[in-house]
Amino acid sequence: MLRRMWNEVLLYDTESDLSDFIKDQHVCVYRKETCNARTSITYKCSEYKKYPLCQFQLKGKESLDGYQLYSSEAHNHRTRAQTSRLPSPVRHNIVLVTDTGLTLRKIQKAVTVFNPQLSNNITKIRTHRQKNRCSIKSIEDLQA
Ligand SMILES: [Zn+2]
Predict the structure, then answer these.
(1) Taxonomically, which superkingdom (predicted)?
(2) Which of these, 46, 127, 47, 54, lies nearest to 84 by C-alpha position?
(3) End-to-end distance of the chain based on CA atoms, in angstroms?
(4) Which tens digit of pLDDT belongs to each residue from 48-75?
(5) What residue segments make up the domains of the chain, in order of their start?
(6) Alpha carbon of 78 to ligand 1 centroid (Å)
(7) Which burial class, exposed, middle or buried, applies to 136 when counting CB atoms under 10 A from its CB (0-12, 13-18, 19+)?
(8) Cβ neighbours for 33, distance < 8 A, ≥ 6 positions apart
(9) What Å distances lie between residue 59 and 5, 7, 56, CA to CA?
(10) Distance, CA 16 to ligand 1 centroid (Å)?
(11) Which end of the chain is least crowded, N or C, by CB within 10 Å?
(12) Closest C-alpha among 72, 74, 76, 30 to residue 53
């Protein structure tokens, strides 16, 4: 693996200045180390599960003058992780119709009419319906 390159970004006077900046960068704490009583925090993309190719990282290192911030790579959100779950609007709709008295066949039909790409995914619709059997309102919710 290639060694990660770090670029100096800015020097912050206090830790809270640094964390104000960090908040807007869509990162979460990845590693926190203390070396010679100085803290070094590495952050990685907060959506790393969704975008496994995103290599973006930030590092805040305590120094004599404050906190030096380094960055490495940039957010890369072009490739989303493959998932076998149904897309979330569809899952939401299934939850809505579950327990409205519709038969499974009718639910499957309604879902595949609105989402033709799911016609091969009937088993998942069934599983999802069973998991959510108790939480429902009305059929009007689905139509809306
Ligand atoms: Zn990212």
Answers:
(1) Eukaryota
(2) 127
(3) 51
(4) 999 999 999 999 999 888 999 999 999 9
(5) 7-72, 88-137
(6) 10
(7) middle
(8) 39, 40, 41, 42
(9) 11, 10, 10
(10) 23
(11) N
(12) 76
pLDDT category of residue 104 using cuts at 50, 70 and 90? confident
Tell me if 11 sits within 8 A of 2, measured CB to CB: no
pLDDT for res 110: 76
The whole-angstrom separation of Cα 44 and Cα 59 is 9
| Residue positions counted in the chain | 144
Cβ neighbours of 144 (radius 10 Å): 7
**Ligand 1 centroid – CA 24 distance (Å):** 12
- DSSP code, position 82: P
The pair of three-digit structure tokens given for residue 49, joined into one six-digit string: 């599960």
